[in-house]
Structures are given as C-alpha cells and as structure tokens.
Amino acid sequence: MPQTNLLIKLDGLTMTLAKGERRQHLVRTAELELPPRTAVGIVGESGSGKTLTVSSILGLVPFLPGITAGSLVLGYDQTPDNVWRDGPWLNRRVYDRRKYFTWQRRLTSRMKRYRGKKISIIFQKAKVSLNPFLKIKDQVFESLKIAGESPNIDSALYWLNNCGFNAGEASRIADQYPHQLSGGQAQRAVMAITLSSQSQTVIADEPTTGLDAKLQVETLIFIKQMLDKFERSAIIISHNLYSLAKFTDICYVMYRGLTLEKGPTAKILEHKGTNHPYTQKLQGLVESGDVVGQTQVRTDIAGCPFYANCHIYRKFDAGAQKRCRESEPPKISLDSDHYVRCWAFEK
Ligand SMILES: Nc1ncnc2c1ncn2[C@@H]1O[C@H](COP(=O)(O)OP(=O)(O)OP(=O)(O)O)[C@@H](O)[C@H]1O
Ligand SMILES: [Mg+2]
Q1: I need a labelling partner for 97 at 20 to 30 A (CA). Which of 9, 212, 228, 334 fits?
Q2: Predicted TM-score of the model (pTM)
Q3: Which atom of ligand 1 is nearest to the CA of 53?
Q4: Atom 30, ligand 1: residue with shortest CA distance
C-alpha cells in the first residue's frame, strides 16, 4: 500500500536507555503501518516493547528510554504529516536534555490535534483510565467536546447504549462513579468514551487485562464489533496470539524490542513451519490456549534476541550460530505483505 494511504507509518523506531557510556535498546527498529478501517495487532510477551512502541505514536515518550532513531508519519489529512524523525538529543556520548525538552515541547503541541481527536488509546486497566472523581456521563461529555459536539445527555446515552448498556442501565451507569462499576462495565464505559470522541483510530493496549477468561473474549468481540460498526481503525495489543487471531487483519510479532514477523493474521497463524521460529512457538501456545509468559528481558544482544530459545539455531553450524548471536537478523520478504527477521530465511 502506498505510504500516503496509511494513517500511521512508524519506521525504524529505536528507544534507548543510557547509563553512563552504556546503551540499552529497549525497542530496536520497530515498525508499524496502519491502513484505514483495518485492525492491526501487536503480539509479544511481557517486556517486548509493545507499550513503548504505541506510546511513541502518541508522543507519550519519556526522556529515558527516549526515541533515538526512527520516524513517524501520520496520514489523517490530505497531506501526510511528518511528525518526527530521529531523536535529536543523543550524540554519541551523552543525552542532551535541553535538546530533548525542546523537541518534546514541540512534539506535544504538534500532537494536540491527534491525541483524543484522531487517535485514542485504551490502557491496560480500564478502571485506571477513568477519572475517579467524575461521573461516567461527565467523562463522555469531555469526549463529546473533543469531537466538537456540545455535551448533552442524549448523546452520552446513545454511546453508552451502543456499548452494550440497555436503556435503563445506560442512565444508571451515566450517573455512577468509576469505582461503582464492575470490570466489564468499566471496559464498556471506556469504549463509549473513546468512540464518542469520534477519533478514527483506537489503540487498545491489552484491553482485557484483569478480566476473567470468558469476559476477555466477550470484550474483544465487543471491541471488534464496535470498531467495524463505526468504521474505525485499531491497533490491538495482546500477549496472546489466540486473542488477536479473531480480531485483527494484520499482525506484528515482537520479541525483546524487535519486530520478528509481520503479515496478514491468517498467514501468521498458518502453522506450516514457514513462520519465524518465535511465531511457531506462539502458534503452539495458540493450540493449547495458553498465553506467553515473561522471560528475563535481555536487550543487550546485538543479534537475534530469540536465538537462545530457537530450534533452528540449535541445528546450525558454529559459523551460522555466531551470525545469529552477533548480527541483527535481516528483514526477509516472504510475500509482498509478509516478512520475517531471521537469518534462517536468507537464501
Ligand atoms: N521508563 C522506563 N525506564 C526503564 N525501562 C523501561 C521504561 N519503560 C519501559 N521500560 C522497559 O522496557 C521494556 C519494554 O516495556 P513495554 O512496557 O513496552 O513492554 P510491553 O511489551 O508493553 O510489556 P507488557 O506486556 O508487560 O505490558 C520492559 O523491559 C520495560 O521494563
Ligand atoms: Mg504493555
């Protein structure tokens, strides 16, 4: 798809921690492309850099680990907006705080027209995203104001109705504070607030964390139905490939800060031994319905971060193993819309 048709094009994102002379890349050359009316998934275990990646899209980045390389182009208007390119505050030895804060201030003012207006985010725990001091209706009102609509109870009830509350329930929930809601109700209230802002893109960062297994599936089905109904695009983050399989069109597989595979979700699930070795491991977990746990995060590896657990690496001779350990795996196209980062795929 040509670049101009994309709503989000994030390229070569590198986010780096600096301790004295030491550099640790928590995200390495990550990328993400979001076409309109598409749901894109990011899957990976805890600590793989999923939240840092989507935070960079909204400019919600800390000083450390700051963005040290990459670029972001947003395509919500006719002319694509080159929002940032490379973190300018890192020279070879030190982080330049002054340059960083100037850059961050400019970014914040530039992102005002996107945050909540074009792109909304639902964070890991719904209740944490809600303001504990405001009734749900007041939080929908805030969101309606962002969309340029005057705050009114009919619109608030319309969005609550659309998000799975029947008429009686919607008026009751509208008058309640977040702590009075159950986990599932809070999640649907967050969805009503998000959708009422009319933003074209919804980023859902593990929206089902903290819900029980049955409610997790129901919530994801619900989110997908809402996005389809209101023709929104989405980035959905999950630990679990099984969850994303049903709700996304395209999937990115991340491991310890690196995107190891990207393709149509159907191809990521094909299970013919043709995917990245890490994706193959996730596919095994799909079958058992399990989720990926957290492994110790080692981001100081120059080569493939997965080599120590890779079944193909073990079959390689010493020379090929050295290459996996020491050189960043190249991006190999398997198809026009599908790639893996793996030395084993090099012809
Ligand atoms: N401000 C920070 N300072 C130091 N390390 C950080 C900071 N923010 C994130 N990290 C580290 O960067 C790595 C990636 O973090 P990130 O939150 O993006 O992971 P994630 O894939 O979203 O994980 P989870 O599934 O647990 O939410 C983790 O190892 C995390 O500990
Ligand atoms: Mg996260």
Answers
A1: 9
A2: 0.89
A3: 18
A4: 47
CATH code for the domain defined by 3-111+241-345: 3.40.50.300
Domain boundaries, the chain: 3-111+241-345, 119-198
Residue 2's pLDDT band, with cuts at 50, 70 and 90, is very low
**Per-residue DSSP letters for 29-41?**
EEEEEE-TT-EEE
For the CA of 27, the nearest ligand: 1
Q: Pairing state of beta strands 22-34 and 338-341?
A: unpaired
For residue 49, which atom of ligand 1 is closest to its CA? 18
Cβ-based neighbours of 240, under 8 Å, separated by 6 or more? 43, 285, 291, 292
Distance 188 CA to ligand 1 centre (A): 26
146-197 pLDDT, tens digit per residue, is 888 999 999 999 999 988 899 899 999 999 999 999 888 998 899 899 889 8
Q: What is the pLDDT of residues 233-251, one digit of tens each?
A: 999 998 888 778 878 999 9
pLDDT band for 101, please (50, 70, 90 cuts).
confident
**Residue among 46, 208, 209 whose CB has most ligand 1 atoms within 8 A, to mutate:** 46
pLDDT score, position 3: 45
Ligand 1 nearest-atom number relative to CA 62: 1
Is-contact 39 249, C-beta < 8 A?
A: yes
Judged by its nearest atom, the ligand closest to the C-alpha of residue 239 is 1
